[in-house]
Structures are given as structure tokens and as C-alpha cells.
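Pasting as-is:
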Amino acid sequence: MGSIGRYIFRTTFGAFLLVLISLTSAIWLTQALRDVDLMTGKGQTIITFVGITSLVIPQLIMVIAPVALVVAVSYILNKLASDSEIIVMNGAGMRPWGLLKPFIAVTIVASLMLTAISAYIAPESLRMLRRWITEVRTDLVSNIVQPGRFTAMESGLAFYIRERRPNGLLVGLMMDDRRDPAQRVTIIAEHGELLKNTNGSYLLLEKGSIQRHETKQRDPNIIVFDRYAFDLSQFSGGNQVIKYSVRERYLWQLIVPDTNDPQYIEQPAAFRAELHDRLLGPVYPFAFVLLAFAFLGAPRTTRQSAAWSLSVVILSVTLLRLIGFASTVFSLKYPVAILVQYTAVFGAMAAALFAISRGLIIEQPAFLTKAINAASEWFARRADTIAKPAQ
């Protein structure tokens, strides 16, 4: 790869990273805002919030990376065409394959990244996400801390707090325990704090009282305390059996599934559909880049419109990806749909390679050009007609 190729590789790869990071950050932010109740409703820290929401990023990258790559390639090709650099390189004797090489090099890097993500990183992130969410949901200590309302921890035991402050301090606590038919225990405290250690979970209460009222006695016994620890470990959900979905399986578990796996026995079609979707994931960048190069990589004069070519690239890439999504869904019932997905991807690649090898310049159809010109003239006449009475 010469100096021109290295220049194209650097600019394309930089544009790819910029688009990938920008799109991923924007979509991640919209997803993260939907889970903000982890902090407000379930009492989790911002570190837990960011950690949980960030685990979906590998899954987002798998979808966004091919799109980011075709955007970067289209931008660089359009820039080269606008500056007449493609014409100059073609006039200097550079063949289409020479111009294509740096783009293929960037595509190989993106494809290898997607392979690693789809095979291990994304499933592992989703597994960590499931384990973390399961821990949060089964963490009764966090779930009961709902300010301003009574919450039944179990039958006969109610919990109430007036306020939860940002530093985790609980204000205005009351617990009413009627689980023992022989007595009723009511605990009131000004402040409280949730503590967790290896021994369990505790609610550390400060400046309060414990009222024990036995059924056979008229008056309750009241004990005033400065500090009192209430054991919450008895209300934990215990060890949870986590069942991973098909999307959370590693690639090798899809290639050679465990025949004794109850989920595989129940949903073999889901394993098959996910496997082929994972296998084709790293291939889509090549199809997208070849399509973009077929429409935008040929030498053009500046008078030839690139808007049509860009529009066709967007439509072609969108259609190809929609066919992939639809084939994955339909393959759950109709296995032949997998062939449609492979045919669409490799057929698009073959057609693009044919156009590139022949040096074809895919022009806008004449009838479409006439229709656009006629529509433009009609709008211009209408604008003049409206403007004249106003004068």
C-alpha cells in the first residue's frame, strides 16, 4: 500500500471511529435514560447505573459498526470525487482495485472487531448484565427503600421511610412487625443507613425506639436506643438460578450446542437463526463497502450529481440489512429463509465486484432525471406565479 493508500486508510479509519463513537454514544444515552430508575427507584449508585447501562454497548456496536463504516467510506469517496482526486488517480493509471485496497483494509479491521465482539464480548456483556440486573432485582434491601409509602417486605411486616437523601441516609423510618401472633413490634427511628458486608445486609438505625406490645398485656414495653442494627439478610432472595438466552450464548456454544440443554431442545430454530446471524455479522461490512464503492468509486466529473449515488447506497444498504433481519425472524419457522439471507449478502457482493471490475459508472436513469427536472421546473413556475401577485 503506497502513500495514497495509507492516506486513504488513515482518513477512512478515523472517520469510521468518529461516526461509530458518536452514534454509539447517542444511542447508548437514549437507552441509559430509560433505566435511570435504577438510581431513583431502586436506590442504586451512579456507578451501578453506568456499569449496567454500559454493558449493552458491545451489542450496539455490532449493529452500528457496519453502518458507521459505510458512512465513513461514502464520505471519503464523495470527498475524493468532489476534489477530482479520483479522476486524477484514474488518469495516472491507478486501477479501481488500487483505490479499493485501503477501504478493504479498513473493512478487515472492522470485521475482525465484529468477530471478536459477536463471538465472546457481546455474549459475555449480556451475561454480566443479566447477572447484575438479577442481583438488583433480588436485592430486597434496595427495592424496599421507596420513600413516602408503606412497603410489605413479607406478610405481617411493613416498612416505611419519609425520605431518602442523596448520600444514602434514610430519614423518618418505621417498621411494623406483626409476624408473631403473640406480640407486635414497632420500630421508629430518626435516621437509618443500609450496610452490607460478608455477614449479610443490615439496617443501622439511630435515635429511635422499639415498642413491644404483647397480646396479653395492656401497655407496650418501650426501649429507647441510640443505635440499633436490624438484620435484613433474612429477606434476601437467596441464590438465583440464571438461565441465559440464545443471544447470550458464546459463538462456539451455537456452533456445537449442548444436546442436553433444555433450551436447545425447546428452541433449536432459535439457536440456528442466531448462529447464522452471528456468522454473517462480520460479512456485512464487506458487502456495504463494496456497494458504496460500486456507486461512488468510479471516476466522475464534478458536473455529474453524486446525490443520486449516495441515495442509492443508503437504500441498498438499508434494504440489504432489512432482508437480513427479516430472514433471521422468518428462519425460526422457515429454515429456507437462511438461504435468502446468504443469497442477498453474497449476491450484493458479487454484483458490486462485477461493476467494479468492469469500471462501470452507474448513472441516474434518464427517465428519473427527466422527472426530477420536470418537477423542478414546475415548482419554479409555481413560485414565480405566487411571487408576481405579491409584487
